[in-house]
Amino acid sequence: MKNSNDIQYLYEKLSTTYPQYTNKKPKAKIYSKAYTSLIGVMLSAQSQDKRTAVARRQLFALADTPEDMIKISQEDVIEAIRPAGLHNAKSKNILATSKMLLENFNGRVPQTQKELMTLPGVGRKSSDIVMRFVWGQPHIAVDTHVFRLLWRLGWADNLNEAKASITVNNTTPDKYKYGAHMWLITHAKLVCRSSSPGCDDCVIKAVCDHRDVDVPKSKLRQYQKTPL
Question: One of 50, 125, 157, 201 is an active-site residue; which one?
């Protein structure tokens, strides 16, 4: 875990290094309407941004409201979102979520995390993204990139991304929460890369534990169980 001084230090460094990313939105996921943004986030799970963008364009060409979405067959949804992967599960969740929005929320996307997480296929990470980028609330979403950074820093103490999200949200000072997600994910993608991380040039290396830097995420759980 990081102490308050370490956290303050890393946010001072990241906020001054990436000020232009504070209000940037992930274009492959977030759009002008709350509903299409929610579906975009759902499509993005375990999918590259380029593939997510193709899938959402094809899907929204068919329907971009919950009323129209439930009129489409699951087979048509599957074909439209196939580029994003996991199309069977995602299609089922998209249709179920659209139906639930109409039945329980008057066709509108909920504005609280608790309600968002009642929707099929919407977990902690997805709800954090929607709360931050759709509703403008200070939530920090932990995806695979952010988790990698948190783990190497020694900030996350659990291999579960949802629990890591709770940790980082609870320990980030309020004044940094709004920009935190974009600073963390940008640093993870540009510097704390999965392979060949730029540790020598890292602006927060002074507070980094460099934990398991050479271990791929897919092998972390196995590695942690191996006796030293």
Answer: 125
77: left (phi over 0), alpha (psi -120 to 50) or beta: alpha
Task: Sketch out the chain's domains with CATH numbers.
Answer: 4-23+140-223 (1.10.1670.10), 34-133 (1.10.340.30)
pLDDT, one tens digit per residue, over 55-111 is 999 999 999 999 999 999 999 999 999 999 999 999 999 999 999 999 999 999 999
3-state secondary structure string across 129-145: HHHHHCCCCCCCCCCHH
Whole-model pTM: value is 0.86
Q: From the candidates 143, 200, 214, 217, which is the catalytic residue?
A: 143
Query: Annotated catalytic, 200?
Result: no
Query: Could you say which DSSP state residue 209 is in?
Result: -
Q: What is the pLDDT of residues 147-162, one digit of tens each?
A: 999 999 999 988 889 8
- Three-state DSSP state, 158: coil
Tell me if residue 143 is catalytic.
Answer: yes
Give residue 88's Cα distance to chain centre. Answer: 21
Please report the DSSP string for 46-95 in residue order.
T--HHHHHHHHHHHHTT-SSHHHHTTS-HHHHHHHHGGGS-HHHHHHHHH
Amino acid in position 60: F
CA 150 to chain centre: 14
